[in-house]
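Figure 6 in text form: structure in, sequence out.
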């Protein structure tokens, strides 16, 4: 393993610096569950499902909790960076680890491209700046921050998440004040009865509500990022369980709570696809500054996602390289314990992607972006299958039991797998989301051929070596 000589007490067995404290891990966990899927995407979900979108978020949130507890059990068994591919490699097989590592890497590269491009577009709200200039500046700044120290990455995520959390809590408090005191333009009409009085709780039927589950699950993508931080957490055995156990109240407050408040103040019929429900709510309340505030929050959410992409891609590439499933060049660390080559390679691809998106924003690029959703869910599937197999071995006494066992497992894990399977079927039914499934076989073929070539040249690529 490539590493550097640093203080043993502050360094993980993989060579990373343990620079992420409890405060940062907690906010990374919170921020991972809050993104543009809520601030922008919820508008489409409300127009399709009405108030029943609240129930969709609640059910999907329960499934996300099952996934995160499954991940937590694995992390306490063996906290390693690049955890998804490492666990898939150990409990399913080297090929599963290979596919998971490269797929999760691609997920964040594509996400980073789209988010930094979106961030550049948001800047035009205030200033007439060429989009490519903003995208380039944001990419360079985030790339530089990720190469200074892991602590700086954590600080950026802390403040990015703080902005998102503050915005949602502020919206909830404003809505609560309108419902109880009756101030603002919406004070005379605001009522909890809006949740069932305009066509009922399921205004378009249960079928349409089910179709929103795919959008809801997409909104939760990146919640698993806390698992990638395992190798760089100062006290993973204490910090990670606390972060994972906050998932239920995070979803209850930031998704379910926020939507209940917004839809009580503004009837669901006032929302439209492509328009942020936060912007629509501010306008209904007569708060002119609302659009600017939401634009700033969405800009923050986009930069947060791109920052996470910069962080995770370098770790995933290094994990692959350490297991002979990627170029050895990716194993190199800086004196600060940062994966320089992998992060640089990923950042370079993000810059190319921004240029492609600027030059040819056509269907070909849209196809690649749509693939990000299915590739993100692949990581969840691998987490659940790995946890099921780990639990079976631990129960037989073949492996030590985790200190943070998933409650109700393996039944909860099987339920989560079935739920994800249902969402994939719904994607196949929806013509707008179906393209994601078309891309998956192409990527699988590329990985399959690549693995066979790699295995023929280096048999160690098909061997598992336990780390951490």
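Output sequence:
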């Amino acid at each position: 393993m490539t590493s550097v000589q640093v203080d043993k007490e502050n360094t993980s067995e993989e060579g990373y610096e343990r620079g992420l404290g409890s405060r940062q891990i907690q906010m990374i966990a919170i921020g991972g569950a809050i993104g543009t899927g809520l601030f922008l995407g919820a508008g489409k979900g409300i127009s399709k499902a009405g108030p029943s979108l609240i129930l969709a978020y609640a059910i999907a949130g329960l499934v996300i909790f099952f996934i995160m507890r499954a991940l937590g059990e694995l992390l306490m068994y063996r906290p390693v960076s690049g955890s998804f591919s490492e666990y898939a490699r150990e409990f399913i097989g080297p090929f599963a680890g290979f596919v998971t590592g490269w797929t999760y890497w691609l997920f964040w590269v594509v996400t980073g491209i789209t988010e930094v491009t979106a961030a550049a577009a948001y800047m035009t709200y205030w200033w007439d700046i060429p989009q490519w200039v903003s995208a380039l500046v944001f990419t360079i700044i985030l790339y530089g921050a990720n190469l200074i120290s892991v602590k700086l990455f954590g600080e950026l995520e802390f403040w990015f998440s703080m902005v998102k959390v503050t915005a949602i809590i502020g919206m909830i408090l404003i809505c609560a004040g309108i419902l109880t005191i009756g101030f603002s333009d919406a004070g005379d009409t605001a009522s909890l009865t809006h949740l069932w009085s305009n066509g009922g709780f399921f205004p378009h039927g249960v079928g349409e509500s089910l179709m929103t589950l795919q959008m809801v699950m997409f909104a939760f993508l990146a919640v698993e990022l806390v698992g990638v931080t395992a190798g760089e957490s100062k006290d993973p055995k204490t910090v990670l369980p606390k972060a994972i156990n906050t998932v239920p109240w995070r979803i209850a407050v930031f998704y379910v709570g926020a939507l209940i408040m917004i839809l009580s103040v503004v009837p669901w019929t006032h929302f439209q696809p492509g328009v942020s429900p936060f912007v629509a709510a501010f306008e209904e309340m007569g708060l002119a500054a609302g659009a600017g505030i939401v634009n700033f929050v969405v800009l923050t959410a986009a930069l947060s996602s791109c920052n996470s992409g910069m962080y995770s891609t370098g770790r995933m590439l290094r994990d692959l390289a350490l297991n002979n499933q990627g170029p050895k060049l990716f194993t190199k660390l800086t004196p600060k314990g940062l994966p320089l080559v992998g992060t640089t390679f990923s950042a370079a691809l993000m810059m190319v992607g921004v240029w492609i998106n600027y030059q040819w924003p056509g269907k070909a690029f849209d196809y690649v972006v749509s693939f990000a959703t299915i590739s993100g869910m692949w990581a969840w599937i691998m987490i659940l299958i790995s946890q099921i197999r780990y639990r079976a071995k631990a129960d037989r006494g073949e492996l030590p039991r985790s200190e943070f066992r998933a409650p109700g497992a393996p039944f909860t894990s099987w339920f989560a797998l079935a739920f994800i399977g249902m969402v994939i079927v719904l994607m196949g039914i929806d013509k707008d989301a179906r393209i994601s499934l078309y891309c998956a076989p192409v990527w699988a073929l590329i990985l399959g051929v690549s693995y066979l070539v790699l295995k023929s040249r280096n048999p160690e690529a098909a061997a598992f070596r336990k780390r951490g």
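Caption detail: DSSP finds 18 helices and no strands in the chain.
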